[in-house]
């Protein structure tokens, strides 16, 4: 039985964005992120996470982001099972009201 995936609301993330507390990782496809990403987010397509695991740091806290929260939930689950400290952005980019950068 895996542990519960922690969620963070878009409002919480927006408040903490400048603090540097979280590393935001957008797991959407290239054409989706072309429409805008959360400022400072790193783009790692969901399917490439296993081979890019060495880019993640177990001492950091990550927030995983996708369009609606489903793919980022899967990414969060995978990373958590591999010993990483992760949160899933509740509602994904559909709920994000903050700034986006192209």
UniProtKB/TrEMBL annotation:
InterPro entries: GlpE_sulfurtransferase (IPR050229), Rhodanese-like_dom (IPR001763), Rhodanese-like_dom_sf (IPR036873). Residues 18-101 form the Rhodanese domain. It comes from the Bacteria. PANTHER family: FAD-DEPENDENT OXIDOREDUCTASE, SULFURTRANSFERASE YTWF-RELATED. This is Rhodanese-like domain-containing protein.
């Amino acid at each position: 039985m895996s542990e519960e995936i922690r969620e963070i609301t878009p409002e919480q993330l927006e408040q903490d964005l400048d603090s540097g507390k979280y590393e935001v990782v957008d797991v959407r496809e290239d054409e989706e992120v072309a429409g805008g990403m959360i400022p400072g987010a790193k783009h790692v397509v969901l399917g490439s996470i296993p081979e890019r695991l060495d880019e993640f740091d177990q001492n950091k806290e990550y927030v995983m982001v996708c369009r609606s929260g489903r793919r980022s939930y899967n990414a969060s689950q995978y990373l958590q099972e591999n010993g990483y400290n992760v949160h899933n952005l509740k509602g994904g980019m559909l709920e994000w009201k903050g700034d986006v950068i192209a």
